[in-house]
Each structure stands twice: as C-alpha cells, then as structure tokens.
Request: fold
Amino acid sequence: MALVCLVAGGCATSPGTPVAGGSVPARFKEAAQSATGPQTEAQPRGAWWQAFADPTLNQLITRADQDNQTIQVAAARLAQARALVRAAQAQRMPQLELNSGASRLGGPLINAAGGGGNLFSSTADLSYEVDLFGRLAQASDAATLDAQSREALLQSTRLLVQADVARTYLALRANDAERGVIQQSISAFRDTVRLTQRRADAGYATDLDVVRARADLAATEADALGLARLRAELEHALALLVGESASMFSLPESAHAPALPAIPPGIPSSVLARRADVSAAQRSAMAAQARLGLAQKSWLPSLELTASGGFASPGLSDLFKMSMRAWGVGALLALPLFDGGRREAGLQNAQADVDALVASYRQQVLVAFKDVEDQLSGLRLLADQAEIQHRAVEYAARATELSASRYRNGSISQLDLLDARRTELRNRRQALQVDWARYQATVGLIRALGGGWDTAGTPAQSAAHGD
Reply:
C-alpha cells in the first residue's frame, strides 16, 4: 500500500545497506469498516474547515493564513532552503570572474630577474568543476530534498495553525453555549430565591431555606464569572492566532452551533501519506542518505578546468594593446591521500545522521497512526456518551419540573427542589461539554489525517455527497 511504499522507499535509497521498512496496517482499528484509497500525498487538502458551515470560522482561518507569524517564520525558512537549492545548482555551472589589479614590484631578487616596476592587469577567469562521479548532482539533490522537507513543514505549520484556530473558536462557542445554560439556571435560582423569601415571609419556610437558595444562586453566578474569564482568554488566544493585537480583537457572543461534519465509515490508512510531518520526515531521511553518498565520494578524485584571458602591462596606458594580451589554460586533478581521519569521521557522522532520521521517520509514522486511532476512538465513544447524557438531561429536567410543582404545593422541602435544579444544571453542562468535545475530536481527526479524510476531495465535499 501507499504508506508501506513511503516507509520502504524512504530507506531504499540509502547508498549503504538498505533499512527494511516498517509494517503498517491497511486500515485503522477504530474505523467502522475497511476501505482502500490511492496515494494522496500530492493531493490538495482543500478548505476542510468549510465542512463546519460557519462563516466566522472561515473568516478567522483566512486571516490566520495571511497574518499568523508562525506561518510567516515557516515560509521564510522555506525561502532559505530554496535559496540553498539554487546555490547548490550553481556549483554545477561554469564560474566566470573579471579581475583587475595593479601592483608595484621591487627588491633585489625581483630586480635581478628583470621584473621590477609596475604591473597592471585585467583578466577574465573561467573555471568549471567536472562532475566526474556525480558529487555535485548529489549535493543538489540533497538540497532539493531539504527544501521539500521545509515545504512540507510549512504545510504542517499551516495545518497546525488552522486546527488551533478551529479548536479555539469552537471552545469559545462552547463557552457561549455553557454560559447560556448558566444564565438560564441563574434566572431559575433567582425565581427560587424570590419564592422561598415569600414563603418565609408567610411563615411556610425558614430562614435556612432562604440562605440555601441564595447560596446556590451565588455559586452559580460565580460559575458564570469563571466562564466569562475563560472566554476572554480564548478570545485573546484567537487574536494571537490570526496575527492581531488582543487589545483590538473581539468576537461577539453567539448561540449558533456550527455543523458537525459526518465521518465516513471507512478511512484508508493511505491518507496518512499526505500528512505533512510524515512527508517532511521522509524527505529529511532521504536528504541525509544523499549526504551520506557525498561523504562516501569525498575519497574520489576531483577535476577542475580553468582558463584565463586578458591583458598585463607595466604601463596603464598600454594595458589594452594587443601586444600585451595574456592567456592561460589549466587542469587540476586532486586525489586525497591522507587527512588524519577527517573524511572517515565525516562518513561516520553522515551514517549516524541517516540512522537517526530514518528512525525519526518511522516514529513519525507510528505517531500518525496513534493520533488517528485516538481521535477515531474518541469520536465513537463520545457519540455513545452524548446519547446517554442527553437522556440524563431529559430525566433531570422532568425531575426539576415535578419537584417545583410539589414544592409549590408544599409536598417536598426547598432542599429537594434545589437538589433537583443542581442535578439538572450539572447534566446540562455535561451534555454541552460532550457535544462540543465531539467538535474538538473532529478537528483533531482532520489534523491527524493531514487535512481531511476524503481521498477524492475535501471534507466539505465528502459531507455534501453524504459519504
């Protein structure tokens, strides 16, 4: 399958002994059924966040793509790597230099040879290193692989920022929803305080009942303030992600809940081939293998051809006369014989670098599978938990309704009513937290899969077709 080819292909290019690729399954354990898919590394991820059908989220991610400073740093690193590729490729081209100089010679030895006096020169020097054993080409290949790794890291950084924006925004909307439930509970507790106070004034309740009701009201109001503090922090985090000052950024409260994208029943493990961090680790390992080949070729001879042509004259006025022209050609063949072990040490260092990066690549593949399995199992269990939790909310709401009726009729104590309200509030908040945890797990799955689960398009397209 595709990911097996990635693991094996990333190791088979080693100029030394090939390292066997790790064994990976064809599908995820937590997926509902098996599925197959094509190699997806080169496929576009698409605007996966549009599957949530939330215009505000779309706008925030667009702003983050443009202004997030972490993305800007990764883009600059990629520009550096591409510049190094151009520098490596330039080494394979002829080098031409124009030199001009003036000097005055003197002294007994120079005068005895008849060479004293002034010397002016203007020459063009051409040099070219013949790539006898492909050393320069391999250096260019290594730089290209490094640049591809940086490009994958930029894509990984972009996906990370997009996922952070989505998660932070969804956490903020979850906070808004929970605060709405808290405000409803505060209103109900205030009604209970007023009712209990009237009953106490009429002699049907005690001061203890009033104090208990006020205590529950104060505790709920304190919870509301804690949620308000958390919302402010989430808003500040969003400002940082979109590249704006927290002092100038604000997001109005909203009770709108984004759409929850449907996860397809079968996800092929081949989609992990497009995870940017996996791709970056593969390219880094292949670049290290190319550098290992360079270290091995450092023992081979190198051949450089040179040519120069120009003018040299003792007088500046005669410098460019045809009689003063000068030229020369040459060839330099260099073969290393003894360097005190420097090249051998470089070879050992390159081999160790290959071993480390291949192991890192395999580890990244294992991490990718773990990330996906975590999110798939989380989504499956959260769906079951949400169903049960919503039943608990229905029962708790019915219990509160019955308790309020009986309390008004004097059949139960005020403590029983408060206990019923506390139970309902707790269950409503837990239900909201489970519901919004499903959103977070969905974003986590999208990130773990490298930007979506649909090998034919974006998550939005997958949801639109009912996959």
User: Anything to note?
Assistant: The chain is about 60% helix and 10% strand. Strands lie at 95-105, 117-130, 302-313, 325-334.
